[in-house]
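Q: Hi! First time asking for a complex rather than a single chain. Here are the components, and I think there are two in total. Is that enough to go on?
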Amino acid sequence: MSVGDPVVLIVEDEQPLRRFLRAALTGAGLAPVEAATAAEARSLAALNNPEVILLDLGLPDGDGIPLTRELREWTQVPIIVISARGHEADKVAALDAGADDYLTKPFGVEELLARIRVALRHARQADGGPTETVVACGPLSIDFARREVTINGDAVHLTPIEYRLLAALARHAGLVLTHRQLLREVWGLAHAERTHYLRVYMAQLRRKIETDPARPRLLLTELGVGYRLRADATPPS
Amino acid sequence: MRPDPDALLRRVAAEEARAGLGRLKIFFGYAPGVGKTYAMLESARRLRAEGVDVVIGCVETHGRAETARLLEGLEVLPRREVVRAGARFDEFDLDAALARRPSVLLLDELAHTNAHGSRHVRRWDDACELLDAGIGVHTTLNVQHLEGLNDIVAQITSVRVRETVPEAVIARAEEIELVDLSPEELLERLREGRVYVPEQIERAATHFFRRGNLLALRELALRRAAERVDHDIRSYREEHAIRETWPAAEHILACIGPSPGSARLARAAARMAAGLRAPWTAAWVDAAGPSLSAADATRLETNLALAERLGAQVMRMQGERVAPTLLGWARRRNVTRVVIGKPTHPRWRDRLRGSLLDEIVRGSGDIEVHVIAGEVGPSDSRVSERGRRAPPRAYAIALLQAAVATAIGVLWRTHLALPDVVMLYLVGIVLVAVRYGRGPSVAASAVSVAAYDFFFVPPYHTFSVSEIRNVLTFTMMFGAGLLLSSLTLRLRRQELAARDREARTAGLYALSRELGAAIDTPRIAAVIAGRAADALGGGAIVLLPDGSEGLREAARHGSANPLDEHEQAVARWTLDHGRPAGLGTGTVPGSAHLMLPLASGPRTHGVLAVLTADGRPPDAEQRQILDAFCRQAALALERARLAQEAREAELRAHAEELRASLLSAVSHDLRTPLATIKMAAAALRPAPDAVGAGERGPLAEAILGEADRLERLVGNLLDMTRVEAGNLEVKREWVPLEEIVGSATARLEGLLGRRPLRIDLPTGLPLVAADPILLEQVFVNLIENAVRHAPGDTPIDITARESATGLAIEVGDRGPGLPAGQEARIFDKFFRAGPGKPAGAGLGLAICRGIVEAHGGMIAAANRQGGGALFSLTLPVPNDTPRPPLEFPEDAP
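A: Yes, that's all I need. Here is the structure of the assembled complex.
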């Protein structure tokens, strides 16, 4: 760890997991700061100005969701929520409250680092970094300026809604978008409950983009939460 | 000497019954004015001084200052004010007493009759309820109020006291304190006006307070108290194993009927039973013959109720003849003495009909028969023809038939001999007897004889008779008419009685058949309410305990309305005490319904509230049917309760079995990976150099693999718990099947490796209404199962198509297939295909079934053509299912 490494705030009440996270992050050139409670997290977030926050939703002194909302009032720092499988509703609530991504316990080091990298990249872009006009994911490439989508260089014909859907996912490439966020972005506020439209359009989009729509490689389903466009096209081992 | 075990058991039972019950103490005197209330208050003050919580529930001082002084310093419970017909009554407040719960409550005048509108008609019922609630009661009682001595007192004083206290209540007294005063002193007090004379003897007061009477009453009271002492000594002996010769167990049977003398008979039998300390039974035989008039039926019920209060078990029997029925029962139950009334009817009737007494005496064998004097009164008021008087029309027809027979005889005179004419008349008489009963048939006989004499016996057209022979003919003709009519009448009665009995039996049979078919409590309740309402022609409600303190209506039938709060309280009382209450009983008789307990043994399962068509209490016959219904109903409810308990026990056993297999599965499947992880981590830890770099990879792999296995197991266990607990929450959404299958395969990417996965989902499949997360788990588990069982390079196929029954999905592999006959069992929890198979907790498929069934679908397994296992799921497709493509209006391509 050296001065200038991006500071990552770990909010996790379980000591063994904190120890593991510290080791993994330090090894990857990040500077971890640890908090075991929501209260500690509040003061450390203000003091250390972290670039990413890893937040466990189940904290002894308060729920992670209100904490997310509170942090969002004054900082745009990326928040990656950590929660166990089976708590999809919590994840959706945290994402809708302003979290940027989530990780399901247990997770591997590579997955963790990949998520942190995506989060950092998006944060830097939002901070006035160069806005990409072309997003490429493996064979897929989206040119926002020309509203063009190609697979391996071949143009793909999309309906307006399909394009808006893909564009929304591509702008947050690597990050998860909840059903509600996508519906709002593509159809508008009035249609935030029509999840099955979203699903059907997603299926159509896959048929146009994926080689095997039943085994998607690009448009990933985060079941019960939303969708994600894979940031790097190489599948994780 | 060791105590007799039976006696010891009786003592233990009695003491257990007493524990938790309050103690009753009676201050017993022979006449008003001997100082019972005074003695009770003095004793209360002593108890108070000893620190006992004594409260006065109800004490009448009758304005006597010396008595009133004793009240000072004692807590007095406020009276309840009852307004009835414009008059105000202060009544003892039973509920306030139950709420206050003192150790001892003073309750003057045990025989008092409560004002209308109180819970119980009689104060002794209040006392019993207090005792049952564990509150001690001190009370006062005069000898003339003792039920069992009522007749004797009436004989002595010629004042019949209506307010009597059952012997059973007296028997509950722990202690009876005799308050005595010499008659001279009592008369002195009376002269000084220091005695309050109760209303009921006011008219006869001068007669009542005669020295002779008082002496006799005093003797009666002393003797009664002495009997009690004797009894106490005997129980003391019994408790302390002082053995003496006990008579063989006695059992007394009293034959009770509708005659007023039967009341006296019941008291005599009760006294005898008390003296012998034997149980006694009051029996009434409903023999074939005319049924009772309404007045007799009421009297019979009164007599039987009296017997019950006197401690008898009441038996109603049915039989062709009284004596054999009674004696048969007596033999079966080892009755030692039969008590029967002295006949009051004239002797000729016995000659004619046979004497019941005679029959019993002759048939009694070794049973002693006691004949008790009966009072003269309207003894036999059985009415002919079920109380119906033949209509005038019947008499007209009787005359008409005589006229017709005469006309035929006159017209055919030349062809008929005289005996033929007689036969003609007899036929007419029989017809009338069969159709209209006794009165008209007697009239027909008389008119026929007269007409025969007038028209056919010389000298013709006069009533005079010339030959003595003809008088004989008349007599025989009249006699034959009477005999025929009485024979036909008897036949008819038997037929009617048989029909009645048959109707009753049919009702009971129908009830028991329906109860047999009813399997659960609500159905049983419905059957009981329906049958009881039918039997009464009124209404019936079945009330069952609602699990907390109250009663809920389980079924209602006929004209009954839901019970109001007051009636509910009466029903609750019946449930708590297991005794009938309400209409026509001694407890809250003002209630609109009769509440009958549905009791089997000591347990009361519910209450049957009934209502007759005319709002009057049910008559004896209806009560009998209702009692039979209640017994059957109670048994059915008991059966339902036992079945429920058995089911619960079975569930518990099943759960226990599951717990055992869960423990074994968890302990094995958790320990194996943990052991590997521990060993591998230990090898890596001390000095990384101790393990060669080449070996570290495989060790880390082992840790990872086993940790994955553990994670899956824990996940399965958690899923199983959710499925099992029945609180599997299915959050349905419309989802394309493709998305779910895609998500499952993405999750299993690592596990699948290079194994070929062939997915065939036609476009245009309907969306499924499913919880996406749960349904994904089904696919994950099915694919995992296939990976585990089928060799590494064989393909896994997933197909779906829409069929008539819904969405049919199949997951197939090319593994070894299912063991024969185990196709259904593989969905059981903790089932494993067999030894030597790859390990798994045996939960995956059970979870699949739980989830699919929660979605209203089905899952089955079979062996696949060409080898391997095939799992088929069917998910319902509701009518409003959206089908892709769903075009959004603004989305033109």
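A: The two ends of chain B are 110 Å apart (CA to CA). Let me know if you'd like any chain examined more closely.
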